[in-house]
Amino acid sequence: MTGNLSVAANADHVLLLLLVDLVIILGLAALITRRLAILWIERKKGRAGSRLHGRLVALFSVVAVAPTILVAAFSVIMFDLGLEFWFSERVSTAIKNSRAVSAAYLDEHQQTIAADALAIAQVLNRGGVALTYNPSLFNSVMTRQASLRYLTEAAVYDSSGRMLARSSSFLLAFNPEIPEWAFERARSEGMAIMTSESEDRVRALVRLDLTADAFLYIGRLVDSRVLGHMESTRWAVQRYEDLEGSRFSLQITFALIFLVVALLLLLVAVWIGLAFANQMTGPIGNLIATAERVGKGDLKARVAGPARRDEIGNLSRAFNKMTGQLERQQDALLEANAQLDYRSRFIEAVLGGVSAGVIGLDDTGRINLANRMACDFLSSSSESLRGQSLTAVLPAMGTLLDRARARPQRLAQEQLTISDSSGAERVLLVRISAEVEGGTTMGFVVTFDEITQLLAAQRKAAWSDIARRIAHEIKNPLTPIQLAAERLKRKYVGQIVNDPETFKVCTDTIVRHVGDIGRMVDEFSAFARMPSPSMQPEDITKLVEQAAFLQRTAHHEIDFNLTLPGEPVQLACDSRQVVQALTNLVLNGIESIEGRHARDGSDAPRGAIELKLRVEDGNCVIEVLDNGKGLPHEDRSRLTEPYVTTRERGTGLGLAIVKKIMEDHHGSLLLKDRSSGGAIVSLIFPLQDEAMERGRQSPADEPPAITEKAAGHG
């Protein structure tokens, strides 16, 4: 507020100033809000440096707002104290007294000129009409009276404004403009006091008795400096009274101004704090983000940004140097690991091509390497085996490992029978050698060869040779023995008088046992001289039906069930050998059922044999299921070897012949227990594409619903 404008003008300027400040505040608030929103989002996302950024902004804001609030509060308090002093009783009395002094000074001049006007009017009235008719005398009297009373102007006028007389010191070269109201007041009240428009002199108008229409006009100049001080005093008093009346609005206005300025300073300080925090936390955030990338394994990460000469710049350069060294060390380690991996893969490739299983052990007997054959035997991966103890994986090798550890200079070797992951017993030739350097055992190398099939083949070859010899050496004398016994019976049975029944029984026994020996020799001969299969495309469903039909008609006390697919299954095979294999399996099932009935008596269930045929995974699978006494637990892995049997009268060639037939057909034979009691024997034939193709081209008049026929036989 300048002091030379009106209150309305000052209010307009103050409002304009507040509007400008408000626009600036809104702009800064928008920028700060946007930056704070970005900071909040970064903190929510967990961006590096966001928490430090927020703390720095809060610190700068507190540092800025505290003095701002103190200054604003102190300013408001001082302004209120100033107003209290300005509008105190003493100041108000002094200002009002100065106005009274100026008014008294003016009143004194007005009273003085009024007294002078009355005195001159009395002199002129005493002169009477003589002065009216003597203008020179009239002017002389006026000049003398004006000089005596130090008047600057003195004249006599009539009501029309015509001058009748004047003093020689009259300042106006023309008649003054006397307002009409002065004449009216002079007529009614006898005197009128006037002041000029410029307030630089005091004038008086008095009615005279010379004529009916004569008025005395006098004036005296007042010091212009005194009048100026009086005017200033009146303006100051008026302004003081106006301000005193708007004291509350002044307090509100100045409080708003202080508040706006304080808010503006606060926002500017916050904005400067944000900018400074950005400048400070930016490099720190980059450093933290780069450290997180390095922590995740990205050693190529570097702290980017312009070079700085302060501590943060030194820290960034030291961090980049550290990550560079780590990267070089990592590259060296990766290269060394790559070489080790290459060597390890090369060794594994070499060991993978070896038919024997190879296991590498450390000095404590823990596995650190296993080739493919060893992993297949243990049904585990090399990674899962690594770190395990050999005695925990293969307990049977523990004694052999102790021997190798006790005598590291000698090769420990032994033939072991070990069950694999499927439970089958397998014969292994195990060798363990120690790796010795400087008299210290560094580790062990375990190699093992599976010789199960080799031993089985050796036994089979030996039994085949024995069978041929038996068939040759025994079969030749059997016929003469049988013929001689029959001839003795026919020729001498009538001639023997003493106990002829005994003679008959003995000859019948000889004939019967010779027949049994002949059949056994025939089985030996069949096993030793089994011909190579003649492969022809056959409908395997018919072969299964044929094998079941032959035994169903001979054993009515046993239920036979067939589960066959609804369409023919073509298989390239030797039909005679396949039927023989199925017949052997069904006969084994019948004998197993008879053995269970002999063991359990009436508690045994009714005998049942089920034959299932299905195609899965490119194989033709035939399963023979019985509810007999089941498979033996001892020497189960040798059941398919020749002359291994659990029956008193068995030859042990049934399963051996079946296995030989399956090997000739490139199939496999599986034996397992049935959960409800009994056994399950599976024949697995690989399907050949050409046989299947020929099967698709089979005549259309072949019966499609073999299952129904099988059900009818059941």
Helix content: 55-70%
The CATH superfamily of the largest domain bears the name Histidine kinase-like ATPase, C-terminal domain
CATH topology of the largest domain: Heat Shock Protein 90
Provide the CATH architecture of the largest domain. Answer: 2-Layer Sandwich
Distance between the termini: 123 Å
Helical stretch tally: 20
- Care to count the β-strands? 17
**Backbone CA Rg:** 70 Å
Query: Which whole number gives the mean pLDDT?
Result: 75
Tell me the overall shape: rod-shaped
Strand arrangement within the widest β-sheet reads 2-1-5-4-3
Overall structural domain count:
5
The main sheet comes to:
5 strands, antiparallel
Q: Runs with pLDDT <50, length 5+?
A: 1-9, 690-714
Structure description:
The protein has 714 residues and is of the alpha+beta class. It has 5 domains: 7-86 and 253-280; 92-243, Beta-Lactamase; 353-447, Beta-Lactamase; 455-528; 536-713, Heat Shock Protein 90 (2-Layer Sandwich), CATH 3.30.565.10. It has 20 helices and 17 strands. The chain has helices at residues 7-44, 50-86, 89-127, 129-133, 135-148, 180-189, 224-245, 247-295, 311-352, 372-378, 382-385, 390-393, 398-406, 452-492, 500-528, 540-554, 575-600, 654-664, 689-696, 706-713; strands spanning 153-157, 163-166, 191-195, 201-207, 215-221, 357-362, 367-370, 412-419, 425-437, 440-450, 536-539, 559-563, 570-573, 608-616, 619-626, 668-673, 679-686. The strands form 4 sheets. It has a 5-stranded antiparallel beta sheet, sandwiched between helices. A 5-stranded antiparallel beta sheet has the order 7-6-10-9-8. Strands 12-14-15-17-16 form a 5-stranded mixed beta sheet. Strand 8 (412-419) and strand 9 form a beta hairpin. Helix 3 (89-127) packs across helix 7 and helix 16 runs parallel beside helix 17. The chain is rod-shaped and about 235 Å long. It starts with 6 loop residues before the first helix and ends with a helix. Mean pLDDT is 75; it is low at 1-9 and 690-714.
